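Example 3.2
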Amino acid sequence: MIPEGGHRVPFMSLVPGDDRIEIRAAIDRVVASGWFVLGPEVEAFESEFAGAMGAAHAVGVGTGTDAIALVLRALDIGPGDEVVTTPLSAAYTALAVMMTGARPVFADVDPVHLTLDPDRVEQAIGPRTRAILPVHLYGQAADMGALERIAARHNLPIVEDCCQAHLATAAGRPVGTIGVAGAFSFYPTKNLGALGDGGAVVTNDRALAARIRRLRNGGQTDRYHHEEAGVNSRLDELQAAILRARLPRLGQWTGRRRALAARYRGLLANAAAIDLPPERDPGHVYHLFVVRVRDARGEARLALQTSLASRGIETLIHYPVPISRQPALAGVDPRDCPAAARACNEVLSLPLHPGLSDADLDMVAAAVESESAELIQDPRRPAAPGGPVRNDS
């Protein structure tokens, strides 16, 4: 919907901006080389990405989902095993567990920070548990100190889902290096995004990295010699070259995200009917800026979202349904997670990306404050027609 004044604030734009010249040069370089799969661009990106993430090794793979699944497989996790994870994330986290034949077991989230609740994780651990899989949600690290203590007590590895958390830290430690390995996604919407799908595993374990390299390429030790049953999940040369072009800007982009988030926090600190999930750690990288609309049934959120849409402001919901309530997960007998379920009725993601201007952010914040004040008067007022509702990972 285009407002009367004609000005729109889209949730984000995926068209290359200040990096378009470097991206064009990277694409041309790969096309001219004639080498498109597992070549020098992938090798160079793996080295550069590992360094940027503070890890000894990085392995480029096809998607962030594959990155999680390949780490679990490299740990010999499979049928009959269980992995404790969160119900509040994109469903691909749990689907990656299922790709190995293992069962995702959901532990509820901390109702304040929305990442895995360590107390619930400990309660979910059973005789078949083989790993803990926290998600660094929206760019904020999970409570890694507490999870590490639990993992140590039960002799379990931690596999970190870092798909929304490039450059994030937990108590000064880079995410992805705290557990045995970290899985990253380069889906175009991510803080470091490709122009297509892509993912990577980072780890400080040389042997684990070597096995993942083998598994991603059909289990081959060398051409046409397959030591084990692997998969076909390879980061291609074009995407690796594009990511190499963008990686040097990631620090600057992350700084901009943090500055925008601080501006939102200042402007929305006293907004009626709105809560701002607090930072657990200053290492938050704000893949998303999420507010909570106080409403356990989701009616007030829908009213706010459609009212913002009528002003030309696009918002998204991350996520409208807990993974544990997805029909695709019914077969794993998921337990109820009430804190995640409530959050799914309240969360709303506002525009935040490095290209967002201060003026547009101020416009969004003013509209949220104004519309949320109206919600106090009539929290169940009908939603205005025509508001776009999308859910992107």
